[in-house]
Design brief:
alpha+beta, Immunoglobulin-like, C8orf32 fold, six-stranded antiparallel β-sheet, 9 helices
């Protein structure tokens, strides 16, 4: 396998130097008391063996104690920053076309989340390395591959993976001054029609009803959040959910995070507010390592007086913490892309992507479905 990528600062393992210091202190204490223990042993060699055993046993005991203390300390994603490894794995079936084009989303790298480094692991048969690209509209980054059919194994899929090292911070409202310094927070990027976020008269009436008592845009931002929270049920039964179709959501009144926030964005537009869609993956807080089964998404809405306000109505509904997920995003996620109806870089031949979290591939000028992905994380540090 070939490995290539970029590496930033990598958090050191804090247990090792602590254990070394324990050993040093233990040796000092044993040395100062050697005259007290010499009568208990018959030789210098036996004394050395005793020293080694004591240092090893007590260092392990202390390390286990530190681990247990760390595990018992609650991780609060609303206040704690975390560093983690995130592995994005892909398995690709051999296409019939001579060349396969593959795009993988690259994590956001901004004031809220830092990509400390990444490493691509790919078969030695691949002739070209991945290229780190960025689409011009929203600034979403991605890794782009071109893989010839002859570079695939004769049997079984072609496997590759990307290991990211990421620091994710809890965030709140982005004030207008800070927003002005971030190009992808320009309001005009998210105002106007979007084929993936269509509205209708029902949504217009719902938006008017939700904000009927609002006396300011700030009131409208919260009123819409409460309305969607109360209207929608987190329910992934049957079909239709997960596409982020506001018209379907306003009728079904259920769905997953995509449906909650697409409805919010469409309703916001009907009362003169601008909102944007963001997507990534959830990071469990109850474990420090494991598989991740799917994606998570949320929204951000522009309050002209206060700035960009983050909301996570679906997580609020699931957790019963309505207020906690208004105006704040915890660090229990990795953000990968923003926007809907996306054109990649280099541009795909197919239609704009509904959203970008899973691999996208084309072969022979058409969408190629023979690609599967899986995610794994390991928490390195929390502060």
């Amino acid at each position: 396998m070939q490995r290539h990528g970029q590496h930033g600062k990598y958090p050191a393992n804090s247990v090792i130097p602590i254990k070394n210091e324990v050993a040093r202190v233990l040796k000092s204490r044993i040395d100062t008391r050697r005259h007290e223990t010499v009568t208990l042993v018959n030789s210098a060699a036996e004394m050395n063996r005793l020293e080694s055993f004591m240092k090893y046993f007590l260092a392990i005991w202390l390390a286990l104690g530190l681990t247990a203390a760390s595990a018992s300390t609650p991780f609060d994603p609303f206040t704690d920053t975390q560093r983690l490894e995130f592995e994005y794995r892909v398995a690709i079936d051999r296409p019939d076309a001579p060349v396969l084009r593959l795009w993988l989303p690259y994590p956001n790298d901004d004031a809220e989340q830092t990509v400390l480094g990444y490493e691509v692991e790919q078969p030695a048969t691949l002739k070209l390395p991945a290229r780190l690209m960025r689409e011009p509209r929203y600034g979403n980054a991605m890794l782009y591959f071109e893989i010839g059919r002859d570079e695939f194994p004769e049997t079984g899929p072609l496997n590759l993976s990307v290991l990211y090292r990421i620091e994710r911070r809890p965030v709140g409202i982005i004030d207008p001054t800070e927003a002005a310094a971030r190009p992808n927070l320009r309001a005009d990027l998210y105002s106007g029609p979007n084929p993936r976020l269509k509205s209708n008269e029902t949504i217009r009436e719902m938006a008017r009803e939700a904000t009927a008592k609002s006396r300011s845009d700030s009131d409208k931002v919260r009123a819409l959040y409460d309305y969607v929270h109360d209207l929608m049920t987190y329910d992934k039964q049957g079909e239709g959910w997960g596409r982020g179709d506001p018209i379907w959501a306003c009728t079904a009144k259920r769905g997953n995070c995509t449906d909650f926030h697409s409805l919010y964005i469409a309703m916001a537009g009907e009362v003169g507010l601008t909102a944007r869609f963001e997507i990534g993956v959830p990071i469990p807080t109850q474990a420090d390592e494991g598989e991740i089964s799917g994606y998570h998404c949320w929204a951000r809405v522009l309050d002209p007086a206060r700035g960009w306000v983050p909301i996570d109505a679906s997580e609020a509904k699931k957790s019963g913490q309505r207020d906690a997920y208004f105006g704040a995003l915890p660090s229990d996620r990795v953000a990968f892309s923003i926007g809907r109806d996306l054109v990649l870089s280099p541009a795909q031949q197919g239609a704009g992507l509904n959203f970008f979290i899973y691999p996208y591939a084309e072969a022979g000028g058409a969408v190629y479905e023979g690609v599967r992905s899986s995610f794994h994380f390991r928490r390195l540090r929390r502060t």
